[in-house]
Design a protein that fits this description.
It holds the Pfam family RNA_ligase. This is RNA ligase domain-containing protein. InterPro entries: RNA_ligase_dom_REL/Rnl2. With about 180 residues, the protein is α+β, with helices and mostly antiparallel strands. The chain has one domain (about 15-175). The chain has helices at about 15-25, 25-35, 95-105, 120-125, 135; strands spanning about 45-50, 70-80, 90, 105-110, 145-150, 165-170. The strands form two sheets. Strands 1, 2, 3 and 4 form a four-stranded mixed sheet that branches.
Length: about 180
Amino acid sequence: VRFYGHHEKSQMPPFLLEYLQETFTLGKMKALWRGPGEAEYPIVLYGEGYGAKIQKGGGAYTSQTKGGGVSFRLFDVLVGAVPTADIKGVWLRRADVEDVAAKLGIKTVPLLRTEAYLNEVVVMAKHPPLISSVAYEEGTEGHPAEGIVAFTAEPLYNNRGQRLMFKLKTEDFAK
């Protein structure tokens, strides 16, 4: 089990790494994919660490009593990708991502809507209050959402084989 940041040069805070190591143990990961044996295919979990120590104001999004004030939300799972062999892999559908999260005892990023046009997503992010459902679930309701991660219900890819998705931060419109 290995953990990486968003970029190659990203530095993960030690307390987040500790939380991830406690949450995603080798035993849990092996049992999830192939019972007690080895995983047949490489599996990559995509998500975001959050909490008081992660970003300014992050304490609004997690309970201080759980995980030392940090947590992780899953938003995507890629199965079978082998970059060195130019094998693209398969992105799991949302229901399967939710199943993986449940088996690991973690939560997924919340769905605001299952269908929306790009201009509707921009309006949601641009015109407050976009209230954080994560903060609500964590018992710290009333805080604004950091932004929206948008992707197609059925996976669509660009000409490089990358999944079409984007993150729109509410702060991008505050300027």
